[in-house]
Amino acid sequence: MRFYLIGAGFISRTHAEAIYKKLPSEEVELKVAEPFEKSLAEFIAAFPNAIGYGDAAEMLSESPREDDIVIVGTPPAVHFELAMLGLASGRHVLCEKPLVMDKQQSELLLQEAKSRSLWLGCCSNRFLGDAKIEAVRELLGQRKLGEPYKATFIHRNERGRPGIEYQPWSRWFLDRSRSGGGVLIDWGPYDIALLNQLFAPVQVDVLSAWTARPLTQVDPTDCVNDVEQHVAAMLRYHTADGKQLMVHYERCNVTHGAPYTTTEIEGTEGAVSWDSYFSGDSVTYGRDLEGSRTSETHTYSNPEGTFGFMDNPVRYFIDKVKSDSAYALVNEQAAFNFQCMMAIYACAETREPQTVRLEGAPV
Ligand SMILES: NC(=O)c1ccc[n+]([C@@H]2O[C@H](COP(=O)([O-])OP(=O)(O)OC[C@H]3O[C@@H](n4cnc5c(N)ncnc54)[C@H](O)[C@@H]3O)[C@@H](O)[C@H]2O)c1
């Protein structure tokens, strides 16, 4: 298979590693476009079989093959134009999260992908397929919770701002015009991908939302720093069978309050809570037993082997292009998930509730 990476920074290196893990190296042809010579040279030093270009359009100018994949791994401000370039070259496109910068761009990309019968994928599915999440899905599928009515999805991180505490050399994360936003645009794609996989909503209402930017004594003053680092929203999910469920969502990358995580679903007959993405592998199932609450906790580990969560977007997308994948996030679902996230921003900004519907879902 032929892969065309756009951007040779941190994330593109993880994609290149995943490609080589997923496919034997003799099956891989890897090209990479990056305008900054130093970044390109470092990438080629790490992956000597890759062919480097200074310009993405030049790299994509050769005739496409049916299973060619373009991977956009640049800062978000250029995702739209580069993903469009990839689709226009006749290739499937896997785009880093966030998919794009606004709703209209997501609609235009989806339209372009569909008109060309190509897949437009988003990398926000990194944590799908995780063993503990599969265990939660199984409890839901077996209706062990009865009717789920509330999900609590809170991740409060004391200090973890990209561009400051994390990857401090990539200051673009702090500049809204380049990143699209702060903690919501950074973590929201993963969180929404997971919530939307668990509950399969056809419509999401954002009933209320707010954002904030707590300050610290190490906030940089030599660059733009205008993104939110704390967000919360109350969401109402509507499923295809007419059911509703409330989602209490909160994320922060910096707080002067206490850090904690709560990931829990409550239903009429039971509840399930699980460890956050990184903190562990346990899932706790609580229910009633003769009038008292009883609970059991099990741990679920991912199979020992080659693939980690950073490899998932590429390996799922390769599977999708070759045949199918239960975890690839593509086309309507990718656009819908992105629009759910943008509706949280819109609600926080306008203080008006917002509604997003999955394209093609029955009314
Ligand atoms: N860093 C992470 O841990 C991480 C994890 C998951 C997803 N992501 C996502 O990956 C994307 C890139 O993040 P990163 O951490 O790799 O950033 P980075 O700063 O390490 O790399 C981005 C690269 O894109 C290049 N670039 C910019 N404009 C370009 C263009 N027009 N054509 C080709 N290359 C161009 C830059 O020169 C840079 O080398 C973002 O959307 C980010 O949200 C990052």
TrEMBL record:
This is Gfo/Idh/MocA family protein. It holds the Pfam family GFO_IDH_MocA_C3. Residues 2-118 form the Gfo/Idh/MocA-like oxidoreductase N-terminal domain. Keywords: Oxidoreductase. Residues 134-272 form the GFO/IDH/MocA-like oxidoreductase domain.
